[in-house]
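Final report, results section. Input specification for complex C-07:
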Amino acid sequence: MSTSSAPTSLPLPVIGSFDFDSASTAASHDEKLKRTLNTAVLRQDGGRKIRLAELPNSDALRTLAGQIKQHTLDNLDYYLDKLVANVEKKGGHVYFASDAAHARQIILDIASQTRVSRVIKSKSMVSEEINLAHALELAGMDVVETDLGEFIVQISHDRPSHIVGPIVHLNKAQVAKIFSDYFGTPINDDPKALTMQARDYLRDKFRKADFGMTGGNFLVAEAGVVASVENEGNQRQSVTTPRVLVSLVGIEKLIPRMADLAVMIKLLSRSATGQPITIYNNIYGGPRSPGETDGPEEFHLVLIDNGRTEILQSEEYRETLRCIRCGACLNACPIYRKIGGHAYGSVYSGPIGALITPLFQGLANYKDLPQASSLCGACYEACPVKINIPKHLVNLRRDIVNTHLNGVFERMIYRLWAWSMTSPMMYAIVVRMQKMELRRRAMYTGWVRKLPFFGSGWTQVRDMPAPARRTFHQQWRGKK
Amino acid sequence: MSRRVALFITCLTDQFYPQVGVAVTKILEHFDCVVEFPQAQTCCGQPFFNNGFHPEAKELAKKFVTDFEAYDYIVSPSGSCTAMVREQYHQLFAHDHAWEHAAETVSAKTYEFVEFLDKVLKVDLSKLTLPDSRSITYHYTCHLRGIGVKDEGVRLLRQMGNVDFKPLEKTDQCCGFGGTFAMKYPAISGAIVEDKVKCIADTQANTLVCNDAGCTMNIAGMCHREGMKTQVKHIAELIAEAMGLDTTQW
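Structure output:
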């Protein structure tokens, strides 16, 4: 990504013609990446399982959380009105942004009207979605990512590779090198020392900032507040210190009541990081009230659509908007564990990314993502709001077939194959031909080492067993 | 009263592991089931459903319902094909009044083999012993998740004598098969099965129990490529062996 682009040609973090095949192949051969991912991701996944098992009935709680989100999505207009009224009652300003460009413009306008220029920004996936930090920098503002992981991403001109752990693809030595390069200090890979170094640097930024920029995990309609979880206290700085506070949140983050928030936070922290509760839970909604000692003078809430209402209109895919961005499906996914987040070529990676990226950005641009799944179902099992990810991936594959996004030859082969299965006689003929061919290729050793055409993908990595001499069908006929 | 069980043998078991079908038949007969094999059966439609060819999958699903509806129980040695019938057919037949009910009835009486042993026959294998001591590990095939089967396979396995059970690290991590996924995305699938096989090697077990033909082809194919001697077996083969049943002939 070039940083010298003019503001008018702002590059999006998502590139339409992303080559998933080469990116994922390269990643799957990167031994260091796989080792780093394996350790980090398994630890998170294990933590989630332990913390969920502590709950008396985590399955029922996940069902409830799914129902809360689904209910809100089914009645989103009602709850949005309620939220807006309650935020405005507290003196906050609310904006609706239809897409990424609109959202960036709204935030830039707020910045110029309030004459702010020093931004402390906390971690937010939706800000990645609209490439916000870059837009603010291009407008001449000093933007610092204050979440440690995001800070490392920022100073190394990298991209987050995980919804929750942006630098899950980096190991300690790599982080030490990034710090040394950026600060010009000797390499020190002690995590505590690195954290202290970042802390010192960020403290100064916190003190001088006039613009706090955050995302939000939930919007609570009845209270008119944004609720956000974090562990570093950096977001607490953003919402309490600067003169102006802007929160950019997707419209699907709504929940009706504070009581619902208790359910959501309980599941979010456990599912995301294996914590019963995160260190900081920030709930905020308006400017500083008379008598309060901290908080912003102005609070602006930017609610963004950016493709969400389109998904909302589809009864089938609406469920995907339940996502609370906990990252549990990434940690559970055998594919994510091997290729990491960057290979998905989009802001949202892993199973949920493979699902919502094509929905947000167009299936034609991302048709590999729903197909590159073994449909193992680990994501569905991990999901705290029970989004049936494998089911939706299959439905996206159906859409690929129905809109002819796959090749005509591929469609023909599948249809011919399916047709041959409709009669026992044709099945027997196909099986017999396949058997003869595979056994010939195995030269009667029991194993085929090399297959042509579609089969080459198989034998590229492993051998193919030869079929048995007699099928079960044949053997059954010999049963007395 | 003996149960009338239809074998749903699946196309991969039919071609690659017919001895598993023989083992399943003989074990069910041992537990007083009347075992039948509807010979018109071909494929449940899973590859077509998963790849998005839903009208084609539905045709095969109709055939499956027709072939199997007459029986009390339908038992399959494969979790993924069982999951197809149990968890996906309802989507294919939704709002199709002519078929919806029949499909639901068939789905409800379809069981994965281990699940059938455990939940319906409620078998106890503790009187069985393998002819020789073996170190055995177990891969949890993914589609058992879909049908709510957890550690039943391991529990039954460990009931038998001469089983030196070795826990498998990341036992519930997919083997990377995923049907046509294995051929479409060989690099990713390869990295996943490589991880699986490494975990298997680390257990030093000489036998891996894997109760799904597709996963077995994938894992055994990788073990063979890596020159490992590990045998990959269906639990039915081991139970049959402990029962002294011959799976090479009737």
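The two ends of chain B are 24 Å apart (CA to CA). Chain B touches chain A through 69 residues (CB under 8 Å). This concludes the modelling results for the funded period.
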